[in-house]
């Protein structure tokens, strides 16, 4: 397996490369994985999202266990929505509550597929070859907005706010997803622990079938959907999504201005 990261240098430059023994061996980019010859210490770099997707394709109802719980039929084609590029943040970056929304915000720990080659109408073999590697995704949702309008479920709005697509901390190529599990913890308490081999559509099937609907570009991410255990995040709570072999994606829902002011008032009174 090979681990890849995208980081920011002290001068604000974004660098991408292969990680080995606490050093980054720089490559031109994910789109052009050619080594530059530069070797940089990770201690001098700040991690950001490991790729900059033009789009994130997020699946729904892609696990047999969740489909059974929801009493939904297993789909014949991936059911998905799109999350905008502006929603993407990396590990250790804060999730921000949308302005004028005080409702429930939900976490969903997922496996992410990172596309490495442009593909359209791809066969299974072509789809497998187009996968650069795998990462971790927290598909954040403003759950109270989904059915705010009874005439139109607002999946894209509820899931598309800035900071609502946490990705990271790395991309791992050569990763065996079949034997892995997704574990999600909320403030240290385990809330999700499910096997990836329960997926309805394998990663190659997802890439192949979705590429029939739209062209997938290098850097695009497919969030494979979640399973049992989805829950809400309180302001100030921290979500950690981990997959052995990839790492841990950690993000905190920033305390709202109202709560921060209340806390400051209590502290001042004390």
What does this structure look like?
The protein starts with a strand and ends with a helix. The strands form 3 sheets. Strands 1, 2, 3, 4, 5, 6, 7, 8, 10, 11, 13 and 16 form a 12-stranded mixed β-sheet that branches. The longest helix is centred in the C-terminal third of the chain and has 13 residues, at 257-269. It has helices at residues 64-70, 124-130, 155-159, 203-210, 257-269, and strands spanning 2-8, 14-20, 23-27, 35-41, 46-47, 55-60, 79-84, 88-89, 105-107, 109-115, 131-139, 141-142, 165-173, 181-186, 189-195, 221-223, 231-232, 238-243, 247-252. Helix content is 15%, strand content 38%. Mean pLDDT is 94; it is low at 259-270. The chain contains 5 helices and 19 strands. The protein has 2 domains: 2-47, SH3 type barrels (Roll); 55-260, Fumarylacetoacetate hydrolase, domain 2 (Alpha-Beta Complex), CATH 3.90.850.10. Strand 14 and strand 15 (189-195) form a beta hairpin. It has 270 residues and is mainly β. The radius of gyration is 19 Å and the shape is globular. Helix 2 (124-130) crosses helix 4 (203-210).
């Amino acid at each position: 397996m090979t681990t890849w990261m995208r980081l920011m240098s002290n001068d604000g430059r974004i660098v991408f490369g292969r990680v080995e023994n606490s050093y980054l061996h720089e490559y031109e980019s994910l789109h052009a994985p050619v080594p530059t010859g530069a070797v940089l210490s990770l201690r001098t770099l700040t991690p950001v999202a490991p790729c900059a997707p033009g789009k994130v394709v997020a699946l729904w109802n892609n696990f047999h266990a969740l489909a059974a719980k929801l009493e939904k039929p297993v789909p014949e084609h991936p059911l998905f929505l799109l999350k905008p590029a502006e929603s993407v943040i990396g590990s250790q970056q804060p999730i921000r509550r949308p302005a004028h929304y005080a409702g429930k915000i939900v976490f969903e720990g997922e496996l992410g597929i990172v596309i490495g080659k442009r593909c359209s109408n791809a066969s299974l073999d072509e789809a497998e070859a187009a996968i650069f590697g795998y990462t971790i995704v927290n598909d954040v949702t403003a759950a109270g907005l989904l059915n705010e309008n009874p005439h139109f479920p607002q999946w894209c709005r509820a899931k598309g706010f800035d900071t609502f697509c946490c990705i990271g901390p790395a991309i791992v190529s050569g990763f065996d997803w079949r034997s892995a599990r997704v574990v999600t913890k909320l403030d240290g308490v385990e809330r999700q622990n499910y096997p990836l081999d329960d997926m309805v559509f394998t990663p190659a099937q997802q890439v192949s079938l979705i590429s029939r609907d739209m062209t997938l570009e290098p850097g695009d991410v497919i969030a494979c959907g979640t399973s049992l255990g989805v829950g809400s995040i309180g302001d100030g709570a921290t979500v950690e999504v981990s997959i052995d072999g990839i790492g841990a994606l950690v993000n905190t829902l920033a305390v709202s201005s109202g709560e921060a002011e209340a806390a400051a008032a209590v502290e001042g009174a004390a």
